Amino acid sequence: MSRIIVFGAGGRAGRRVVAEAMSRGYRVTAVVRDPGQHQDLSAAGVSLVAGDVTAVDDVADLAAGHDAAVNAAARLDVPSEQFFAAAARALVGGLARAGVGRLVAIGVGTTLETAPGVAVHDAPDFPAEYRAFSVGHAAQLEVLRAAETGIDWVVLVPPPTVLDHEAERTGRYRIGGAQVLPASDDAALFSYADLAVALVDELEDPKHHRELVAVAP
Fold it and tell me: Quick check: helix, strand or coil at residue 117?
């Protein structure tokens, strides 16, 4: 594997994925809505391009010639359920047309289960203002699970807490199933940098297939 395409490369998670992949010698296509706002992503080995992850033609055209894809895209100006479901449909269709067989997507921790079949966002006291965003991520997963596709996808999900965007990369993380992982002994926040490590590890050496998987410090 030598070429990776990252949708949503301008966000906190997407930027870390670009940096992690670059540090391992990959050529990276960084997809953003407005390249003019993300010129700092331009570097040797990085192709910064405009694209819409919810448009199947954009996904197919931009992904052609790549070995794997990452979806780190999110929008707050579009209803969450509409955006994430549309992105999942476009990725399934577009990556298939482009011949890209591996997709690693980023989920949100509130979709993880606290008990079999019970998501964090299903708790009676879960804040309504955050539930819509979480349900949107769940819609993405439903689209992927229902898709009749040969694409080998996985959704990696960090803990249902704020992630640390300043912490340095340690390269350490735990990975489990669909339930929230117990807090680690040091109770440190999970970092975007180490989330990126887990993502690129799954691209390099796929160990999880067509499932949602929790990752944590």
Answer: coil
- Name the nearest CA neighbour of 53 among 75, 37, 36, 77: 75
Backbone angles phi, psi at 47, to 5 degrees: -105, 115
* Average pLDDT for 44-59: 96
**Cα–Cα dist 206/102, whole Å:** 9
Rounded CA-CA distance 70/79 in Å is 22
Would you state the pLDDT for residue 109? 97
Question: DSSP secondary-structure letter at 121?
Answer: G
Q: Which residues constitute the domain of residue 75?
A: 3-216
Strand partners, 106: 156
**Contact between 166 and 121 (Cβ < 8 Å):** no
Q: Structurally, how many domains does the chain consist of?
A: 1
C-alpha 141, offset from chain centre: 11
Q: Which helix (H) or strand (E) holds 109?
A: none
| 93-145 per-position pLDDT tens digit | 999 999 999 999 999 999 999 999 999 999 999 998 899 999 999 999 999 99
* The residue type at 176: G
181 Cβ partners below 8 Å, 6+ apart? Answer: 159, 174, 214, 215, 216
pLDDT band (50, 70, 90) for residue 184 = confident
Q: Do residues 102 and 191 touch, judged by C-beta distance below 8 A?
A: no
Using CA atoms of 192, 197, 200, 206 in order, give the dihedral in degrees to the nearest 10.
-120
Q: Quick check: pTM over 0.85?
A: yes
What's the CATH code of the domain at 193? Answer: 3.40.50.720
